[in-house]
Amino acid sequence: MPSEIRVTGTDGSRVALIGVCDFDGILRGKHVRVEDISDGSRIRFSEAVLAWDCSDQVIPASFAQRPPSAFGDAELRILPGAGRAVSIGHDQPVYLAEFTGVHESLCPRGVLRKILRRAADHGHSYTAAFEFEFMLFKESAETIDKKPFDQWTPLTRGPFGYSVTRAVANKALFDEILALCENAGLPLSGLHFETGPGVIEASLRHCDALDAADRAVVFKSMIKSWAQTRGMMATFMAKVSENWPGQSGHIHISMSLDGRNAFHDGETSQNVSNMMRQFIGGQLRYMKDFCVLAAPNANSYKRLVAGYWAPTCPSWGVDNRSCAVRVIPGDPTAHRLEYRLSGADVNPYLALSCAIGSGILGIEENAVLAAPIVGDASEEEHPCFERLPQNLSEATSRFAQSPKALELFGDGFVDAFSCSRRWEWEAVQDRVTDFERQRYFEII
């Protein structure tokens, strides 16, 4: 995208929206004058963004360990090359930014850049693509607040995956999404209805790994904004209802070395190279330790259950959607893996850091890979079956205590992110739900 986007705001000034990603993958932003944006521009932004939870509550004993009134400003580096024109009723230039200075080690985008620098030291580069499932409801923010969940109206009723009927009936809606993405530099390679009421899957086109995460962050925010202008609500929750499948955020990854696809070897079974085996071996070896980066919320673990094509253990297979890592064989231009642990609720920078970082460790450690799973990977009789963490608390504890996490992601980030996840777990655990009242009120 061009580094200069000219637009006139309602007050006659040329303005752009600057967005920076917090731990939860939420874009936080403010408007600035376009003429103040240039290569290497910096602005000030409250450091509270790195200490808030998703409801703007300051996490106690957060990274700065100071009371809310003491939070000062952090410095942001604006990324002109990540500028995009988002057209939702009007043209809105949006530029991504990242934390720099003393806050860079905590910045989710900075964490991914650190992982990719480590890869570059080995001569590796990565191509990636995210695919997100999201659910649309014919509700506004106001009606959702006023009505119980069982009265919310999804865009479509019941499951009908890959439905041509529904795609044709909703052509205007699909055309809007496709045009929005194309104009914003977020081209899609696929868009279709998934199984589940009102569920749509969008597959972003593959590109450089860092740009892929940038695109994913903007895509999620843009779809939510677009839906509200349409009188709808979009959600990327991992599991909206126990009666419906979860919503995934799968990541497709390939690796280049000396200009070739290092995952591809035409002389081996299913074209899986030795380097790909080591990479997947590392992903599986550290999947339980790093799980919280790909399943960052209490709700995430309600998706990771048997029977819904979501992984329940570190496993790999060839074109096997029940596995955590799925090898997709093909010629050198298409051969890749699909990292299936992550849900739609992920922070794309951190999920990709998890998927690539663990793979790099596998290459460095010459990880050994067991035979691929044939059949349902959730069946516990498999010899290598090891259950993934069962909840956010367990996953956070493993991450916080993992020596490899500290080495790969840095002490400061591991401490701060673990603190944020413990707070998230406690926030959910402290709440008494309608289900509990219905289950226990009279009987217990």
Q: What gap, in angstroms, lies between the N and C termini? A: 61 Å
Count of discrete alpha- or pi-helical segments spanning 4 or more residues: 12
Q: Which shape, going by the Cα principal axes?
A: globular
What's the average pLDDT?
90
What is the SS-derived class? alpha+beta
Helix content: 25-40%
Strand content: 15-25%
The counted number of beta strands is 15
Characterize the largest beta sheet: strand count, sense, and whether it forms a barrel. Answer: 10 strands, mixed
Unreliable stretches, pLDDT < 50, 5 or more residues?
1-13
Could you tell me the radius of gyration in angstroms?
A: 22 Å
How would you spell out the order of helices and strands? EEEEEHEHHHEEEHEEEHHEEEHHHHH
Please tell me about this protein's structure.
The structure is a single chain. This protein is an alpha+beta fold. 31% of the residues lie in helices and 21% in strands. The protein contains 12 helices and 15 strands. The strands form 2 sheets. Strands 6, 7, 8, 9, 10, 11, 12, 13, 14 and 15 form a 10-stranded mixed beta sheet that branches. A 5-stranded mixed beta sheet has the order 2-1-5-4-3. α1 runs antiparallel to α5 (209-229) and α7 (287-294) crosses α9. The longest helix is centred in the middle third of the chain and has 21 residues, at 209-229. It is globular, with a radius of gyration of 22 Å.
